[in-house]
């Protein structure tokens, strides 16, 4: 028999809709896997066991009564512990907010509830979503299910590790410098950061108000498409959310890449890259070519400025958001985070204004460089092989700083540009750790990036492989 915990979002939803599996059975399968293995992985912060079972029982009763339920009915999900649900503790991975109970529920959670997803609780994360490796001094480090000595990527560490370990079908993460795509790439799952403003951020802990993104980590591109169709769209509670109509992303997944051209930038993304990563990425390009895509290597000199400006924006905005807590509770932050935040206060205001004012022109320049005659930009998610927790622990050894920050080198540019980007697994390195590929599209062309990701997954099985726990 198939272990129900191994079903993807669309498989679980379809099994429930057809009466092949009850919502209660799906939830119990997830709970059993969490009970058996999370002691090693440390992905879960709060498990709402009884509430999830009650919600599942209610859905089973409704289905038996002929009630038509949503596109995610019966699907077990958990979310990064920064999505507010009224009355439930939301720690944001921190000591400062260990007992914080919001009075509002995040718009994206309300949309998932309406679609029938079953919320089972919250997940480990980097403190206040502010590191690319997933280390957490307050709740303990989340561990990579492929090898527990290795990092998960951050800041959505529990989301990536939990989906990879088959604890649940999908999870929400957030992405300001790569925090969805990094754990997706490092844990061997699929993750999407939509266009900046595509998904409401109302009721979500902020990190950088001009670069934060909400999105899912899933097993497959089809799963991500179904969830994005549910959560995207304008929200009156988020004045920055875009008014563009939301298409049916899943309907765009034709598998046909004929007429699609991919650009691979020569600059930035391969600087100091490990050979095994480059080989895995190049093999993935061959699969896309076989599906009908054309691949060109292009020059994108704008990436040097983009790589500098993105750090200025995130550091200044992060320091601004934390100003009061940094004055009142500086000792409650992990060492690396307080150092990062204090550094933000040292950046002159005119540098920040310059970084903001250059975003539009640099986006236009990058689009001319990369998207002229191309629909997709393809890059490795990480330049390096997945590092260990010890190799990226900067609280234990500041000599790890360069390696720690290098983890997000390939993801950060797309946050500054604000364009939609999907990470999919595209192989394993010589130590048995995943390799990821990013597929980016023009603003509001999430469907195009998902189309390419889905086409790739039709001819590969990296996303279907399960770590042995």
Automatic annotation (TrEMBL):
Gene3D superfamilies linked to this entry: Amidase signature (AS) domain (3.90.1300.10)
- Amidase domain sequence ranges: 26-449
Give the species this sequence originates from.
Neoroseomonas eburnea
Kindly give the InterPro entries that the UniProt entry links to this protein.
Amidase, Amidase_CS, Amidase_dom, AS_sf
Single Gene Ontology MF annotation: catalytic activity
> What domain of life does the native source organism fall in?
Bacteria
PANTHER family assigned: AMIDASE AMID-RELATED, TRANSAMIDASE
Tell me the organism's taxonomic lineage: Bacteria, Pseudomonadati, Pseudomonadota, Alphaproteobacteria, Acetobacterales
Q: What is this protein called?
A: Amidase
Return the Pfam families for the record.
Answer: Amidase
Please list which residues make up the signal peptide: none
């Amino acid at each position: 028999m198939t272990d129900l915990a191994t079903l993807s979002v669309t498989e679980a939803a379809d099994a429930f809709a057809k009466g092949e599996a009850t919502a209660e059975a799906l939830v119990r399968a997830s709970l059993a896997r969490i009970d058996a293995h999370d002691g090693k992985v440390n992905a879960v912060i709060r498990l709402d066991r009884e509430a999830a079972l009650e919600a599942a029982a209610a859905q089973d009763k409704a289905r038996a009564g002929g009630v038509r339920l949503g596109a995610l009915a019966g699907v077990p999900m958990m979310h990064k512990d920064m999505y507010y649900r009224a009355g439930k503790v939301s720690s944001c991975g921190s000591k400062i907010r260990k007992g914080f109970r919001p009075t509002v529920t995040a718009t994206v959670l309300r949309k998932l509830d309406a679609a029938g997803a079953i919320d089972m609780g919250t997940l480990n994360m980097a403190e206040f979503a502010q590191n690319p490796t997933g280390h957490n001094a307050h709740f303990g480090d989340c561990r990579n299910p492929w090898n527990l000595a290795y990092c998960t990527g951050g800041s959505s560490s529990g989301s990536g590790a939990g989906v990879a370990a088959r604890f649940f079908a999908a999870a929400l993460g957030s992405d300001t410098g790569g925090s969805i795509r990094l754990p997706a790439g490092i844990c061997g799952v699929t993750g999407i950061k939509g266009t900046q403003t595509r998904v409401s951020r109302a009721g979500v802990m902020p990190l950088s108000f001009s670069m934060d993104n909400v999105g899912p980590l899933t097993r497959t591109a089809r799963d991500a498409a179904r969830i994005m169709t549910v959560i995207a769209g304008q929200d009156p509670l988020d004045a920055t959310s875009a008014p563009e109509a939301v298409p049916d992303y899943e309907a765009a997944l034709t598998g046909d890449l004929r007429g699609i051209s991919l650009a691979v930038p020569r600059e930035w993304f391969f600087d100091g890259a490990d050979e095994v990563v480059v080989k895995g990425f190049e093999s993935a390009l061959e699969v896309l070519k076989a599906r009908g895509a054309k691949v060109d290597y292009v020059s994108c000199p704008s990436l040097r400025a983009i790589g500098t400006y993105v750090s200025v924006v995130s550091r200044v905005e992060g320091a601004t958001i934390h100003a009061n807590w940094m004055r009142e509770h500086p000792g409650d932050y992990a060492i690396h985070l307080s150092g990062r935040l204090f550094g933000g206060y040292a950046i002159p205001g005119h540098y920040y204004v310059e970084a903001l004012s250059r975003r539009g022109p640099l986006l236009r320049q990058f689009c001319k460089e990369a998207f002229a005659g191309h629909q997709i930009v393809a890059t490795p998610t990480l330049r390096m092989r997945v590092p260990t927790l010890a190799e990226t622990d900067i609280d234990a050894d500041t000599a790890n700083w360069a390696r720690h920050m290098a983890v997000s080198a390939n993801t950060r540019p797309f946050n500054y540009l604000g364009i939609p980007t999907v990470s999919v697994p595209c192989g394993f390195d010589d130590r048995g750790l995943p390799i990821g590929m990013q597929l980016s599209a023009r603003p509001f062309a999430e469907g195009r990036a998902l189309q390419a990701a889905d086409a790739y997954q039709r001819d590969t099985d990296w996303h279907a492989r399960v770590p042995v726990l």
